[in-house]
Amino acid sequence: MKIEVKVDSRLKVKVSFYKDSIAIIELSGELTVFTEEFDLFNKEIMAYIKMGIYKFVVNLNNLTYIDSSGVGVLMRMGSFAAKNKTKLCLICDHPNILKVLAISKVDVFFKHVNNLSEGISFFEQK
Questions:
Q1: Residue range 69-101, pLDDT digits in tens
Q2: Which CATH number covers residue 87?
Q3: Which structural domain range is residue 104 located in?
Q4: Helices 95-103 and 68-83 sit at what angle, rounded to 10 degrees?
Q5: What's the gap between Cα 61 and its chain centre?
Q6: Is 9 contained in some domain?
Q7: What is the reported pLDDT for 10?
Q8: Cα(86)–Cα(26) distance, rounded to whole angstroms?
Q9: Contacts (Cβ under 8 Å, ≥6 apart) of 126
Q10: How many CB atoms lie within 10 A of CB 126?
């Protein structure tokens, strides 16, 4: 008897705002160009940036996979944040995701926080 476990790899994105200036983004599934939702997510992020939103708290705890295209989106967000004298806050305790960010040498552009309230506090103190 063969049992198959089907994993839903689609990218799921949940966005909310704190005081209209901090975008709170929860990602689950796979952050890769090979998911149908990737382009939509990328365009949505660029729309927020064009609206002048540079403060992001991104929760990666439910992400199962990230590739270079996913790292690229996070880098773009971090780059716009840096140009506006802030950082991108990441919530992540997934060792494999953290390893990919460290190997890519992009983890220095992010503020690693343990939870949402720590991320919001980071922005409110500035």
A1: 999 999 999 999 999 998 999 999 999 999 999
A2: 3.30.750.24
A3: 28-124
A4: 70
A5: 10
A6: no
A7: 87
A8: 20
A9: 85, 86
A10: 8
